[in-house]
Design brief:
Layout lengths: L7 E6 L3 E6 L12 E6 L6 E7 L9 E15 L6 E9 L16 E10 L7 E5 L1 H9 L7 E4 L8 E4 L8 E8 L1
Antiparallel strand pairs: 1-11, 2-4, 3-4, 3-10, 4-9, 5-8, 5-10, 5-11, 6-7, 6-9
């Protein structure tokens, strides 16, 4: 390669682990599920959250991240017709295991940003979230990548389900980068 030539590369990364947690089943683990859920289901105390983690080890050292997007495919949408919910993408603050995480032992998290999901999102459609600044941080300080938590509306019935890594439609982290 000639010096000074910039090569744009795209890396599509699937989760190394993902799970949903349920307030209604506070000690049960759902790490092997084909689905990830957020929001409230039938009543107060029946809330769901999802955790995901992606490894950036497949991106070579000394690259500049141009953009990064999290893409989720909807499996189920029970947001009331004609409305939308506010959801949040949060950065996990401690390590968690896919095989043992539950509502009662979930990691703490810090909100990175909010986003909206509306009732018109049908099963099979995708939601794409810009996570560039978070992925840049993970890439620079590799030890800070403890994954993310997705939280939805936890005060009215509005369950949303996404396909997990155990399905054929796994969440994707799409990272665009160049050599420096």
């Amino acid at each position: 390669m000639k010096k000074g030539v910039i090569i744009l590369a795209v890396k599509i990364i699937t989760p190394i682990k993902d799970a949903y947690i349920s307030q209604y089943y506070p000690n049960q683990n759902f790490g092997g599920s084909s689905y990830l859920y957020i929001s409230q289901y039938k009543q107060s105390g029946d809330d769901y959250r999802s955790l995901l983690q992606f490894s950036l080890k497949s991106i070579p050292a000394h690259r500049r991240i141009i953009s990064a997007y999290l893409q989720l495919t909807i499996y189920r949408n029970e947001i009331p017709y004609g409305s939308s919910i506010r959801a949040s993408l949060r950065r996990n603050l401690r390590y968690w295991r896919e095989s043992t995480v539950t509502w009662n032992n979930q990691p703490g998290s810090r909100r990175v940003f909010n986003f909206r999901i509306n009732s018109a999102r049908s099963p099979g459609s995708t939601i794409t979230l810009n996570v560039t600044s978070l992925v840049r941080r993970w890439y620079r300080v590799r030890s800070s990548n403890l994954g993310i938590m997705l939280r939805g509306n936890e005060y009215k019935n509005s369950l949303v389900g996404f396909y997990s890594g155990e399905s054929g439609k796994a969440p994707k982290l799409i990272v665009n980068y160049v050599n420096q």
